[in-house]
Amino acid sequence: MIEIKNIYKNYDENQVIKNLSLKLENGTIFGLIGINGAGKSTLLKMVMGIIKPSQGVINIDKQSVFDHVEAKKKLFYLSDQPPFNHQMSFKDLADLYKVFYPFDNHLFESILNQFGLNVNQNLSQISKGMKRQGYIALAFASGAKYLLLDEVFDGLDPAARLKFKKLMISEDHKDKIMIITSHSLRELEDICDTFGLIDDGHFKHYGNIDTEVHKLIKYQIILNDINPITLNKKPQYYQQDGRILTLVIEATDDINLYIDESLYRIKDELPLSFEEYFMVHQGGQS
Fold first, then answer.
1. DSSP code of 262?
2. How far is CA 124 from the centre of its chain?
3. Listed residue (266, 214, 215, 218) closest to 238, CA to CA
4. Which residues lie across from 148 on neighbouring strands?
5. Is-contact 126 99, C-beta < 8 A?
6. 270: CB partners within 8 A, 6+ apart
7. CA of 5: how far to CAs of 23, 59, 263, in Å?
8. What pTM, to 2 d.p., does this model score?
């Protein structure tokens, strides 16, 4: 279990994280989302014990990550820009991580093979995406219970992304906790069961992805004319393009609270994607 209690993080006068709390049980794949600079990477580094919060507590299986080495050994952090020596091979990386983790060399080579890689490849001679695949193999082979994966889909081609997703949901890793950040919200929607949207240093929205997305309804409406429309009530989001009006409202609301039936000819209810959900809550009204 990962438990974060009322943490703050300040850099001089800049308060990056403000009173943020989170509790994750084993078997959770958690999507951490937010705009650039929202504090996602800072939060992962605090959970890993790389940087200390200005205030608050972070416990790994009820042990402080800053006071117990055993707690840190349960965590694996994959940075969005993992460091490496240009002369290193995947085998060299594995030998390094074996010092800190109960490393499974057979699993490491097996995952590399799934990605079409081998342990003797030099990191200076392969692409960014191939390096990322190698670090994914390191993360799972490390034996760490909890994986903190920052922009983990970056550089992966569609085939590699599919293999990675299958790896995450496989029976062998069902008891892990994985915290994932990604600019591709579609990828998170496919694989994560819960999410947290960081905004202004805290979780503005948090919960089950499917449940939260279905709290909103998206309508596409064909208006009677092209004149700019005045709505009766402020929606979560709207955009008018000529006679086409896109409207996102609370699922519990009646559309007629927002627009009179006399002003439009056709309305269609459309599915709302997780990416659209994020844009609504980050951007609001058009």
1. G
2. 28
3. 218
4. 77, 179
5. no
6. 218, 219, 220
7. 8, 8, 50
8. 0.88
Q: Which amino acid is located at 212 in the chain?
A: E
Whole-number Å distance between alpha carbons of 215 and 173: 31
Tokens describing residue 77: 């952090």
Superfamily, domain 2-206:
P-loop containing nucleotide triphosphate hydrolases (3.40.50.300)
AA letter at 29:
I
Say how far apart CA 286 and CA 281 lie, in whole Å: 12
- The DSSP string of 88-117 is -BHHHHHHHHTTTS---HHHHHHHHHHTT-
Phi-psi map region of 46: left, alpha, beta (phi>0 left; psi -120 to 50 alpha)? alpha
- Residue 129: closest CA among 163, 152, 95: 152
Query: What would the DSSP string read from start to end of 196-238?
Result: EEEETTEEEEEEEHHHHHTTEEEEEEEESSSSPP--SS--SEE
Q: What is the pLDDT of residues 96-137, one digit of tens each?
A: 999 999 999 999 999 999 999 999 998 888 988 999 999 999
Are 238 and 246 in contact by the 8 Å Cβ rule? The answer is yes
Instruction: Give backbone dihedrals phi and psi of 90, rounded to 5 degrees, phi first.
Output: -60, -35
Inter-axis angle of helices 90-97 and 105-114, nearest 10: 150
User: Residue 248: in which H helix or E strand, if any?
Assistant: strand 244-250
Helix (H) / strand (E) element for 128: namely helix 128-141
Confidence at 172, pLDDT banded by 50, 70, 90 = confident
Q: How far apart are CA 40 and CA 28, in angstroms?
A: 18
The structure tokens listed for 73 are 């050994």
Position 286 pLDDT exceeds 50: no
Residue with tokens 């409207």: 247
Cα(152)–Cα(132) distance, integer angstroms: 7
Nearest residue to 207 (alpha-carbon basis) of 46, 43, 42, 30: 30
